[in-house]
Specification:
The protein has 21 helices and 10 strands. It is of the alpha/beta class.
Length: about 450
């Protein structure tokens, strides 16, 4: 029986979080929190400020979910309570889905309640995520209809950490439940499945666990890149997937690598992963990062936040290129820093937040030579040819256009300065940059290459 002692429950959660978070993040966000009480199946947790509550709910839902699952508290709800104000419960996924299920399938409750903001309508689509989003929408829109030549079962979404894979996956599940609340949908993270399986093996009774997952209509299997070190877990996952696929049930899988690069996975499992559609998510470009920030500020949690000036959003978008999580985290940190010192968000506050987080000078420029030399290296042309050779050949023209685009994107150099570096008129530079932007919109592979180069330079 689960403890009703709030301190004991919070200690279990804290222990799980301490294993996942960097020490500095744990001290900053988790250590100041205190348990208050347990009421109606929820643990009330006191947080020191509205900004801290915002950070925890926006930035740490997956970490909290893992800590709950690994502590055997997956069904425990959390309510974050700001000092002296009424607690606002983090709403769970629709309970009617659970009520409508039949049989012993406890997992049909669907999603961790901390994932309440992961819906398809909140996902901002950019050039690097068009295919994955279109596939996610198609899975929802075509569910239950006659099979088409293009199979999206399983749908395998891969990409770096924090780019929105789990967001899309859970969004699919919620979209399917909206269409049919009777569906049995389960979200399953591989590491948590491993822990559950370990308990079942100790009890010498794994069959009920396997059947529990085989009875679902939709399986959302998160983070399969960790399977390589789990022999028995691979075997159980294979049997679950095989059963669901044979019975026409929908499967969505996420990973940080494509199926063919999953080290240590059995070939038969990789084959199942590749049966349907594989779609990747790439880091968002600058325009998409701005759109993500503005979409984020429309969330109900941000309505009390003072207006964020455009120059602050631009600064955040330039500095946080690695992932959507980094981007949203930096935005939240700027808001937190401003509230801490009691001033509106400003570029000065954003600079201080950046320096406090990264230890770098926020205005430290990237030297144009570094941009040009790395571009030349990427395209395998000499630096001298890139800068000075007069040629209309694509082998020189395209790298030069990309170098101009990056000089503008990374260093914010004036068109005239870029033109002088290449001994060209500023109007030629403007046309070259427009050409690169147009091609990035039309050519996903080109977009990936330019974005990867941009991230490696800055």
């Amino acid at each position: 029986m689960r403890s009703a002692d709030p301190t004991a429950l919070w200690d279990t959660i804290r222990l799980g979080l301490s294993k996942q978070l960097p020490e500095a993040s744990f001290k900053e966000w988790i250590a100041p929190c205190e348990p208050l009480k347990v009421a109606d199946g929820a643990l009330w947790i006191q947080v020191p400020s509205a900004a801290a509550k915002l950070w925890i709910e926006q930035q740490l839902p997956e970490e909290f979910n893992d800590a709950l699952a690994q502590g055997g508290l997956a069904d425990l709800r959390l309510e974050f309570h700001i000092n002296g104000t009424p607690a606002l419960e983090l709403k769970a996924a629709p309970k009617k889905a659970a009520a409508a299920s039949t049989g012993p399938v406890e997992t049909s409750v669907s999603f961790p309640h901390l994932f309440n903001r992961y819906t398809l309508d909140r996902f901002v689509v950019g050039p690097g995520s068009q295919l994955a989003f279109a596939a996610a929408k198609a899975v929802v829109d075509s569910f239950g209809k006659a099979a088409t030549p293009l199979s999206m079962n399983p749908l395998f979404i891969y990409g770096g950490a924090g780019l929105g894979k789990t967001h899309l996956m859970v969004g699919i599940g919620k979209g399917l439940l909206e269409r049919d609340p009777k569906l049995r949908v389960v979200y399953l993270k591989v590491d948590n499945f491993f822990n559950e399986l370990t308990v079942a093996i100790r009890a010498k009774n794994t069959e009920p666990m396997r059947k529990k997952y085989q009875q679902n209509d939709v399986l959302l299997l998160d983070d399969v890149q960790t399977l390589g070190k789990m022999e028995r877990t691979q075997e159980e996952i294979f049997h679950i997937l095989e059963h669901l696929l044979q019975h026409g049930k929908q499967i969505v899988i996420t990973s940080d690598k494509p199926p063919q690069r999953l080290e240590g996975c059995h070939e038969r499992l990789i084959t199942r992963f590749k049966w349907g559609l594989t779609a990747d998510i790439q880091p968002p470009d600058f325009e998409t990062r701005i759109a993500i920030l503005k979409k984020k500020l429309e969330d109900v949690d941000f309505r009390h936040v003072p207006t964020i000036p455009e120059d602050v959003l631009t600064f955040i978008a330039h500095k946080a290129k690695g992932s959507v999580r980094d981007l949203e985290g930096f935005l939240t940190r700027v808001i937190f820093q401003a509230s801490l010192i009691g001033v509106p968000p400003s570029l000065e506050v954003a600079h201080a937040a950046f320096q406090g987080q990264s230890g770098e000078e926020p205005t430290a420029p990237v030297h144009p030579d570094r941009i040009y030399r790395m571009t030349a290296e990427t395209f395998n042309v000499s630096f001298v040819d890139l800068m000075k050779k007069r040629s209309r050949q694509q082998a020189i023209l395209l790298p030069r256009q990309v170098a101009m685009y990056l000089a503008r994107e990374i260093a914010s150099l004036p068109f005239a300065d870029i033109g002088r570096a290449f001994n060209m008129h500023h109007s030629t530079v403007m046309n070259a940059i427009d050409s690169v932007r147009d091609r990035m919109k039309r050519d996903p592979e080109f977009h990936k290459m330019v974005q990867a180069l941009l991230n490696s330079i800055h």
